[in-house]
Amino acid sequence: MITDIQDASATGACSVCDAKAIGINFGVPTCAPCKAFFRRNARRKELLRVSCCHDNGSCSMHDMKTVPHSNVRRCSSCRLRRCFSMGMKEELIRTEEENIRHRKLVDSNRQRREIFREKQQIRQSSLPQYMPTKSQLLDESDWLHISNIVSIYDTHCLQTYLDRRAITFNNRLSQSDDYFLLTYSTLLPMNIALSLFSFFRALPAARSLSHVNQSYLCKTNIRPLLFLNMFELNQLCFTEQCQERLDSSTWRAIFGPDLYERFVSVDKLSKRLLITDPIITRLWIVVLYFSSTLFCFYDPQSSLNIPTKKTPIRETQNAYVTLLWNYLVYRYGDPNAIRIYSNLTLVYLKMQPIGSEIGIRLRTRRELAVTNKVLNQLLTIDEHECEK
């Protein structure tokens, strides 16, 4: 059974005004009004000046237990200041370009759902009569697990990737173009791997495993998931054309011409087949991570310890497989759940041999030795980091 996760949103209180929270927004639990307020005003730095406050910086909104919500929201200056102090992040606000891209994804997803519904109606008469009802598929604990996985991914994987990407391009100003291009081939896969590593290390179900099992999963299963994670990050992050060209040239250099064409083909296939539902993609990544192994090559010089007891790994994976399947059936119906699950499997099976060949290139090509060494170092867990 999946380990219960104590999430901050379980308190039900908005971190800014103490009203009822609707979920994690821009990094912290907030209500709908504070979410909208921060989206509108986060970039209005003039509001942070003391002169904008009704009480010159000593606004009564700081006394959260005695002031009504309406008064708390009255002072925009103190309210925005409190948003930042509670950890709300400006960089998580979508730009106009990202909003346009997001709306297109939503429209595309809606059209696919309509097609699914039409096909479901045609096949409805052939469905077994003993199928469980929606209320039997997912209970309150299951929804809590799903909510926490989405939140942990946003907080650790997505935010780590955004932070590392910002550092990478900020440092470009102090480097020559040749040196930056040389190091970027290491920084790009490193940033994707580190973001995925941060996500798995934050999962309570992963931390509950022994040090041997944790180390084993990190070393064998993170690399094969880099491309699947990259697909999810690309859906979430707005990328300028100059960066897309830089990423493309980096992958072309790492893959080589023939392998790069196969990678582009699989990437197009994933965009066509994978439905843009973040819950599905993230649960699928978790299911694959808790596999006995996704990587069959073992370096004789590696210090990898192969677990003698893999039962905890299999039990954890079974729990996440059940959770993913129940969500698919709940959201899309049985026939469409089969179709979506089959597409997930097909895309990953297409990605896996490409990832295997890239692993060979990283281990055997001299110009990629630094990238391979950095990835090995990143995916190593110290025993003292594991919870007892």
TrEMBL record:
Sample GO molecular function, one term: RNA polymerase II cis-regulatory region sequence-specific DNA binding
InterPro entries referenced in this protein's UniProt entry, alphabetically: NHR-like_dom_sf, Nuclear_hormone_rcpt_NR1, Znf_hrmn_rcpt, Znf_NHR/GATA
Domain of life (superkingdom): Eukaryota
Pfam family, one: zf-C4
Alphabetically ordered keywords of this record: DNA-binding, Metal-binding, Nucleus, Receptor, Transcription, Transcription regulation, Zinc, Zinc-finger
Domain named Nuclear receptor: residues: 11-95
Record GO biological process: cell differentiation; negative regulation of transcription by RNA polymerase II; positive regulation of transcription by RNA polymerase II
Record protein name field: Nuclear receptor domain-containing protein
Organism name: Adineta ricciae (Rotifer)
